[in-house]
Structures are given as C-alpha cells and as structure tokens.
Amino acid sequence: MTSMQAIAAVPFVDGIVYGEGPRWHGDRLWFTDGLAGRVYSAGQAGDLAVEVELRRASGLGWLPDGTLVVSTLFAAELHHVDAHGSVTATYDVSDVAWSTNDLLVAPDGRTYVDLYIADGRGLTGGIGLVAADGTVRIVATGLSMPNGIGLLPDESTLVVSETNGSRLLAFTATADGNLGTPTVFADLGPDRHPDGLCVDTAGGVWVGCYDTGEFLRVVTGGEITHRIEIDHGWAVAPALGGHDGRTLYLVVDDTTHENLLAGSSMGRILQARVDIPGVGSP
C-alpha cells in the first residue's frame, strides 16, 4: 500500500454563488452556477464569461454535434443549448423524477443523468439514459442519492458517487446504454459523502467529499492515493483540464443544506497541479 499524498490548492475564481458541474471543454473550464441562473466558462487566467442564462443549471455535457446539454437541480429538466448560448430545446422529465442533478455525456453521445425520485416516504435515486428526443429511460434504481458520474478509460465502466451511501459504485455499461448490476468501486466510510467526480487516465477517480471538506483521489478497491484539504466550505466537484490535462479544478461552496434550499451560498474555484492527466470524463 502506498502512502497518501497531500496536495495544496491555490485560488482560481471567486465571486460565484453555488458552483457545480465543472467540465474542461474547448480550452476553458465550464461550470454551472444554478443559484445565479448561469453557465460560466473560465480561461486559464481566470477570466469569466457567461455562456448561458439558465435557472437551476447543474450538470453539463456536449453531444457529438457540439450541442450543450444542461441538467437542473430542484427541477426535472434537461436543456439543449446551441453554440450561441441559446436554449433550443427544453425537456420536462418530471414523469420519471422529482429532480435531476449531475450529467454525463459519453464520447459516443450516450447521456446519463441522476434522477431523484420522490416515493412518498422520501427520495430514492436512479440513473437515467437520455435519448436524442429528450425522453429518459431508467437504467439503474435503488441508489442512495446518486451524484457525480464519470466514465473510466475503458469507456464501458460508469462510476457514480452514491452520496448518502458513502461510496462510489461501478456499473458495466453496454453500447446501447444499459447498466449492469453495480459493484463497489470504493467504500469511503460512513463520515464521507461523495459529490462530484472526475477520472484520470490511470483509472483513478478524484471526488469531492463535500461535508468533510476534502477532495480525494481513489482507485478501485478504495485506496486513497491523494488528498486535498480545504480550509472552509463544501468540497463539491473536481475537474481535470488545462493545457496538459493536469490542472485539477476544485469547486468549493460555502453553504448549508438549509441555506442552499433558500438560495444562500458563496462559491469559489481552486486549482492544483497533479501528475496524472484527465481522461476527459466527465
């Protein structure tokens, strides 16, 4: 067993409300700020641009034709956005879920989205496969608040944060998008609650454990190889990017569950350098 390595992070972007869904795309870091109703991008110098105005924006991904897909939190909606930042289609998926959250578009266009399903006794979780016409087919059920979604380098294994299950799950994904029975990729212990994640070329997963204020790199079996501790706030979501794929961007939000529901938060993004580049998923 190797020893865990600590990494320090430095500021990158400040002044957002509630950051989520970071993705490296087109030489810029894209992310959502659902409470501000915006999708942003940032250059490597930290210059911000508003790409889309969209309430409750949460997860991001791009279809093979360049269409941006945006999911929402606290609403079950999916949006298609063109290159000019105009919403070209909105899909209401409230027939299958109370809310969506994170989103993953695989390189071949397969699109997976978190589903939070109210059953009268509380929320259960599932994963939906999104068709080109915006309809959603449920391909996994019975999850304890699924969150971050990524694809391992083999492009046939889906890794999902199970926030209330304190673990990462791995699903074998077939070419038609179906998911097999999950296995435990990493058990993080009862005190950690994984949120967003990203994947590197060695098959390691960087994940934010929001309420313990840390970003971890874990490998299959659960070994933690690297850890970044933040001094305050929720460790919400990481993304690998930069000119060589080795800049790790870290979305941090200062809020509570009650304040988030009330729309009160202060967000920022940190950055750190790592040895293993991102695989481009999510």
Automatic annotation (TrEMBL):
Cofactor(s) this protein requires: Zn(2+)
One Pfam family here: SGL
MF-aspect GO terms: hydrolase activity; metal ion binding
Binding site for substrate: 101, 119
Domain SMP-30/Gluconolactonase/LRE-like region: 19-250
Residues at which a divalent metal cation binds: 20, 147, 195
Keywords, comma-separated and alphabetical: Hydrolase, Metal-binding, Zinc
Active site: 195 (proton donor/acceptor)
InterPro entries named in the record: 6-blade_b-propeller_TolB-like (IPR011042), SGL (IPR013658), SMP-30 (IPR005511), SMP-30/CGR1_Lactonase (IPR051262)
Manner of cofactor binding, per the entry note: Binds 1 divalent metal cation per subunit.
Homology family: Belongs to the SMP-30/CGR1 family.
Protein name per its UniProtKB record: Gluconolactonase
